[in-house]
Amino acid sequence: MHDIIYIEGLKTDAIIGIYDWEKQQRQPLIFDLEMSVPIANAAKSDQIEDTVDYKSVADFIIEWAGNSRFDLLETLLEQLTEELFSRFSAIRHLKIKIGKPQAVPQAKTVGLIIQRSRQE
Ligand SMILES: Nc1nc2c(c(=O)[nH]1)N=C([C@H](O)[C@@H](O)CO)CN2
What we know:
Distance between the termini: 17 Å
Family: Belongs to the DHNA family.
Mean pLDDT: 97
Number of helices: 4
Radius of gyration: 15 Å
Largest sheet: 5 strands, mixed
CATH architecture: 2-Layer Sandwich
Low-confidence stretches: none
Shape: elongated
Enzyme class: lyase
CATH class: Alpha Beta
Number of domains: 1
CATH topology: GTP Cyclohydrolase I, domain 2
Order of helices and strands: EHEHHEHEE
GO molecular function, one term: isomerase activity
Strand content: 25-35%
Bound molecules: the ligand Nc1nc2c(c(=O)[nH]1)N=C([C@H](O)[C@@H](O)CO)CN2
Structural class: alpha+beta
Keywords: Folate biosynthesis, Isomerase, Lyase
CATH superfamily: GTP cyclohydrolase I, C-terminal domain/NADPH-dependent 7-cyano-7-deazaguanine reductase, N-terminal domain
Number of strands: 5
Protein name: 7,8-dihydroneopterin aldolase
């Protein structure tokens, strides 16, 4: 059982969606992440290098998702998960929720949650 480093309510604007109008204008996406990371080394050393820097993860997601262009949330999240495992080697498991608040006007938000483990 590992510890969880989390990011909640991370907002970025992206080109995402299956309809023509969605391919013309950016719309907000909201990310919630839980990253399973062993924190014992960082807790002893007090060094950011020994853990996962949530600020670096947040900055990466804003940049990567902001420059992405997908039809489906499914594709975006699957590819984002691979990028995060590749860039942040201490992440063992990832749970990511993505919300698309403008997609269904009658709903507060809609979206997708995926959970993946690092493939060794
Ligand atoms: N499972 C999904 N369903 C839908 C998606 C999606 O990405 N995954 N996308 C859309 C449209 O782009 C919608 O968000 C526009 O309102 C519809 N269903």
